[in-house]
Structures are given as structure tokens and as C-alpha cells.
Amino acid sequence: MKPKPAIAFIILLILNGCGIVDRRIEQQMAEIENELQTLPTARLNILSPTHGYHSQRFDTAETNVWVEIELDPSRPIDLIALLPAAYYNESDRYVADGFPRRFKIEAITDEGMPQLIADHTREDFSTPHLEPLLFHCPPDTRAQSIRITATRLTTDDTWRSYALKHIFALNEVFVFSGEQNIALNASVTTSSQENIRFMWGPRYLVDGFTYYPPIKSVFLVNPNLQFRIFQPQADVIYDLETTRTLDEIRIHPFNYAPQFSNISAMTIGFPRKISVALSASPEFTEKAFHLNPFIPPQITTGNAFMHTLPALKGRYVRISLADAPLDYRNDPDERKSMIALTEIQLLEKGKNVLRPARSFIEPVLDQQIAPTVLTDNHTTEGEIIPLKQWLIQLNRRAQLKQQFVQLESQENVQFLRQQRLLLYGTFSLVLLTLAYATTLMRFRYRQQHQLQKLREHIAAELHDEIGTALSGISNYGEHLKETGEIKNENNRRILAQLIEAARTTASETRQFIRFLEKRGVESDVIEQCRHTAEKMLFGYELEQNYRETQRFNQLVPIMKWDLLLFVKEALNNIVKHAEASRISIRTSATAKHLVLVISDNGHGLEGNEAPLHLLKRAKRMRAHLSANNGNGTQITLTIPLKKMPSWKTR
Fold it and tell me: pTM of the entire structure?
């Protein structure tokens, strides 16, 4: 590769190294960011009333531990969601706790046969974050129970483990049949369990309490605009306007200070006794279903109290709220009972039927907040999202974030690769520049060396010219010496020739010296030819037409010198032998040749052949010489550009 193209190529590589990384990666990252903006954000609520299921601790990880959720009666299922348990690690981060490294999920059919839903028993499962993990069921899957079997446990890294132990833990399991979570409050059996009341236990695996309650945290609602009654009890009655079969209730607690994570503010005003009754008429003759035994000591905000209902059927719903706690915000002697809630949802097959619904409260109180705030689909912390949709969107958000991290990693790898390319390219450019500079210096040294040879060659030519002229002078002088006098006309003529030879020699010497002083390369050979012709052909009708002078001046110095001598010798031959009165000199060029034409109107050449000394000079230039007689003589010198001799003298 030539130096200049090589330098240009390396510069292009360096510019490419400084450019944008992969456009496709940037485009994918932009698409991910755009999609993330459409998904709801979630805040981790570690203050969950319960934490889920936790096994006992085992000495070896290769221990099978299973949990089985009974779905009585059997149901069609389409989606299973696992939420990892969490703990606060030494790096001040909440991370997954006890999620198995290898596991499988099976749907047990009515015949007691296991149907495999997910199998991760052959290689370790990537340690998840805290977002839900989704496992889609094959079409037409029907199960009477779901069994999750851990075949390789994870190390217990919490502070509770003083020796190397292994555990299996989950925060919550959801099993969906359409929109309905049919695992809620289901019976759970296990092969190993740790029981800590309102923290760890099989029943807490399906109680609906999670670290990510289905609230889209887009804004905070003024708590003073939420439902509050300063009475120990109250009934909220809804007219569903049509007969419904309800299977689930969700009650969202009140948060007096949603902008702070204050446990007291999160649990204020939640009644300790709740019952639900459905009736075909407003008289409510049917027996109510009581939820009292299932209410945890504290219901923190964000996490709704969820519970199944025994297929209650009717048009009118009465929710009785009683045993209201005292409002702790006042002085002890001024505290009153207060019932405070932000939302009530009644579900039929996973869908809320309280929107819209006419409601009223008994007893009717003055200046109370309208009960419609209990069915506006908002809490003090944001918008309520349908549970299944919420889990799918959280899972999608987690996947996109993971993809974004991977793309960032790829981008960083490419950036580092391009940095190395930039470094190597810069280093190569420096080396190539040094090599180019070294080559240029050597080139100039060689040029100077060759110019020196040229000067030596010209000096030799000068020596020959002077030697010949001086020989003539010597002969003339010897003749005068022998005769001893110059009185006769012949001697005077000889002496005149002697003087003319001396003058010619001096002139030629000065011309050679001027050429040497201009060091050949910078000399204008066309201008030298013009000057020589004007001097030698004084008194003649002279026509000079020089074209493509720049290309002639691009000849190497030895070619310039030979060309100048060729012109001189050709003109000298015309002056001595042609007896011409008109002389023409022309130059031209083609793509592959330089052409010099010298013509005169003399009597022509003998034998129509060019003089021998001109043929020798043309041969030195590796040029072609032709001569034609017509109305005088025309000689044409054609110099091929691809056959120029080197600068070395011959």
C-alpha cells in the first residue's frame, strides 16, 4: 500500500472508531425506553403484612422440597406467577431470598397425573430479581392442584443463617383461570415449612399480600378526600343493579401520609371486623360471611386485603365494618373511633363489578365524604390495575430492563473495541507517518545523490565540449606558430576561426554552468530551448510554438539535458548544412508521448536519414526519431512517457 492511501485508510479507521457505536443497538435501546414509558412503574413495598412461604434449612442443596396448592374443585388454568421472597443484603439492596436454583412446576390433573408446566431441573435457573416470573400453561390445561418442586436449593445468605444452609422460599403464588386468581386462600401442603405467625407459613403463600401491590404509582391523592367515618361501625350498601355471583373481595387501607413510609399512617382506620352479605332485596335476610378470622394485625397501605367469598349471589351487597380503631393522631382523651378506607372491590371471576354502582351508607352522617370515592379505582397512592394485567406488565418491564442492560453491555464492549481501534489506529498512523517521513528523507537523499551524478555527467559533457573546442584552438595555434606570421588572408581567417571557437566555448560553458546552478530539476527546459534557438538562429525567420510545456518540464533531469542538447545539435546541423532561411520548432503531447518537431526550408538530408549524432542522442532518451525530406527537412522526436530512463547516468 502506498503511504498516502495507507494514511488515508488509517485516518478513516480512526474516524470510524470515534463515531457512533452500532446504530442497531442504539435503535433497540430507544425502542425499549419507549416501551418502558408505556408500562406502569411499581414501588417495592417491603412492609407487606406477610412474607410468604419458607422451608426449613438443609445441609445440602441437593434436597427435594415441594409445595402443593389445592384448587378445589379442578379448574382450567392458563398462567402461573411466582413472586420471589426478599431480604435486605449487606450491599443495602433487596434481593431474592430462597428462590430455588433448580425446580419444576406441575399441574396435577383430576386423575392425579402430573402435567409438566415448566422444567428447570437440568441446569441452574438465573437468580431472579423481585419482579414476578410468569409460566404460561399449554392450551386446555386443567388442574385440581399445582405442585412446585425445588430440586436444588439456594444458599441461605440472610443473617439468620450462621452456618452454610440451603432453603426454598417464595413470597406469593398466583394461579390464573382467565382473570381470576384461583389460588387465593387455597389450601397449601408442603414437605417442609417454617412457621412464624404473620410472616412465614404455607397459608401466606396464597394470601394476596406481595411486595408489588397492583398500584400504578403515578400520583398521590390527598388523604382528606378519602372515605372516613368517625364512628365505631358502619354499613356500606351497594346496588349492583343485576344479580351477580361474587367470589372475591378486596379492601384497600387508608394511608394518612402517602408521601412517607410511616407504618402508623399506613394502618390507620382499618376495621377489625368485616362481614359481607348478598341479597336479592335490600332487607338482607341471608346470612353474612365474616372475614374477621383472616384479617392480619396490620394491613399496610398499597396491599389490599384480599379474600375469596363462598359464591355469594344477589343484587344488593352489604359490607359491615365494625370494631374501628381509635384515631391515634389525637390526644388519648380526645381519640375517637375512625373507619378509613380508600377503595372496595367486589369481583366476579376476577373482574370488579362495583364500577359503576349506586351506594349509600348507614347510618347516614352529615358532612361525610361521598361513598363514591370507594369505587373510583384509585387509592391514596395511585391507580389500581387489574391483577393479571399488572403481573404481566411487571414481568415485561423486568424483561425489558434486562434486555437494556445486555444492550448496554454490548454497547460498552463495542465502545471499548473502538477505543482499542482508535489507539491502534493512532499508533499505526504515527508509525506510518514516521515510515513515510523516513522514506521521504531517503527519497530526497537518493534524489540528491542522483542529481550529483547528473552534475557529474554534465561536467563530463562540458569537458568533452571544451576539450573539442580547445583542440581546435590548439590546431589553429600550431599552424600560426609554424607560419610565423598572420599577414596573409588565410592566416587572418584561421585566427578569426580561433577566436570564434574560443567565444563559442565560453558561451557553451556559461550555459552549462547556468544549468548546473539550477540543479536540473527546477530548470525550465522549454525556456532553455527557446533561448538557445533565438541565440543560434539570429537572422533566420524563426517560428516557435511550444505546447504542453508543463509536461516537458516534468521530465527527469537527464531527459531534460538530453532534450536540450538534441535541440542544439539539430539547429547547429541546420545552420551548417541546410542553407535554410526559415526554421520552425513545435512541441506537443499525447496521453503516452511527448513530441518535438523541428523543420526547415533547406535542401534536405542526404539519403533521407537523420544525422548519426542525432540518432545517438534519441537513443539515449529511448525515443524514436524520424526524418522526412519535402520542402526542406522535418525531424520528429517522439518520447514515450512509459519508457523514460532512470536517473542513473549511462
Answer: 0.65
